[in-house]
# Entry
Amino acid sequence: MNYQKYSKTGFLKYSLVISMIFVLFFSVYAQTLETSPNNASFIKKDSVLTEKETSITSKNNSPSSTQTNQNIDSFGNKIYTVVEMRPLFPGGDDKLFDFIEKDLKFPETAKKNKIQGKVIVRFVVNSVGKVEQSKVIRSLDPECDKEALRVINSLPVFIPGKQEGQNVSVYYSIPVIFK
# Structure
């Protein structure tokens, strides 16, 4: 009774639009997965953000100096973004967040101004497990950023990441939450 009859051209238009949306979705999805030195994306996995792309330019660095400094660790080795075994904090991610929570001191100016939120810090866990090249990639407040960097730089030695059975340097990103 309320059924509308569709013409063949209407059906073809409808199926064409659906297929175009499908193709568009997968082409955008494929672009986010490709490794491009100028793009960055993150996968949220067990509350730890793992960086997939290599280069994020900071406001303070020029793109050319960023390219050369960010792909090599303090030992002169290549820094990986995706590895077979990612670096592990002794005791796992829960212990990592416990350490950050215990060591984090909420800045007085941020308390006074009622600033809350997340600072995302990227750093390198080098081939011996030490944290280096820490940098804020999502800022909240200058005082909070400084405190987040202090806590990340004070992290104990990680179990290094592995690629083809060898210890390698790996980018690692993590949210530091101020609340």
About this structure: Residues 29-68 have pLDDT under 50 and may be disordered. The helical segments are 8-33, 63-70, 93-103, 108-112, 142-153. The chain has five helices and seven strands. The longest strand covers residues 166-178.
